[in-house]
Amino acid sequence: MTHSGEITSLALFTHSSCTSKREATCHFYYSSISSSQNTTQHKRETERERDMTEVGSENTANMEAGAGAGVEKTAMVVGIDESDHSFYALQWTLRHFFSIPVPLFNLVVVTAKPTPSSVVGLAGPGAADVIPFVESDLRRSSLRVIEKAKELCNSHSVSDVVYEIHEGDARNVLCEAVEKHHADMLVVGSHGYGAIKRAVLGSVSDYCAHHAHCTVMIVKKPKQHKH
C-alpha cells in the first residue's frame, strides 16, 4: 500500500526446487496481500499488520527453537540499478521484510556494472582509447547506486547488509548472486516496458523469473495519477 492508497503490483514466481518452510511462509504472506485487494483500505492495513505479526512471531519462535542447532537465516538478494523502479522495490522490501524484530533473511543488495565494450562497442575508430574513460564512468555510476542504496537502508535502520557490484549483464549477475549466496528469494523491480521495448532490450525480471533457482518477486511501482 502506498501513501496515496494505491496497491503495489506484485508477481511471485516460485522455482520448482524451492520447498523450504521459509519460502512457504513468504508465499502465504503475499497471497494474503493479494486476496485483500478488493476489501476496504482499513481492512487491508489490518490484515497486513496481522500477517506481519504472524510471520515475525513464527520466525522468532523458529530462531529460538533452533538456536542450539546452528540454524542460520538464508539470503534475500535485491537487484538494483539507477532507476526509480528498482529503488522502489528495495524500499518496499525493507518495509515488508526488514521492519520486524527478527527478519527472515540476510539482505544482499546487488548492482550490475556493464562492460565498457557493451556500451561503446569495439568496431569504431579510436574505440580502444575511449574504453578507459567509459570504464571509469561506469564504475562511478555503480558506486553512486550503491551509496544511494546504503542511504535508503540506513533510513530504515537496516545496517547488516551486503552490497556488491559485479560486472556483466544484469540478468546473469543476479542469477549468479542467487547461486553464490544460496538465496531463497530474489527481488527485482519492474520497469513497466511495453511489449516491443521488452522484446528488444530483454526483461531482467522475466529472465530471472525463468532462470533463477529461487523464488523471484517482481515489485511494480504504482502509477501516479495526475489530478
Automatic annotation (TrEMBL):
Compositionally biased region (Basic and acidic residues): 42-53
UniProt keywords, alphabetically: Hydrolase
An example Gene Ontology molecular-function term: hydrolase activity
Keyword Glycoprotein: no
InterPro entries, sorted: Rossmann-like_a/b/a_fold, Universal_stress_UspA, UspA
Domain of life where this protein originates: Eukaryota
Classification via Pfam families: Usp
Ranges for region Disordered: 37-57
The UspA domain, residue ranges: 76-220
Transmembrane segments: none
Stated name of the protein: Adenine nucleotide alpha hydrolases-like superfamily protein
Provenance organism: Rhynchospora pubera
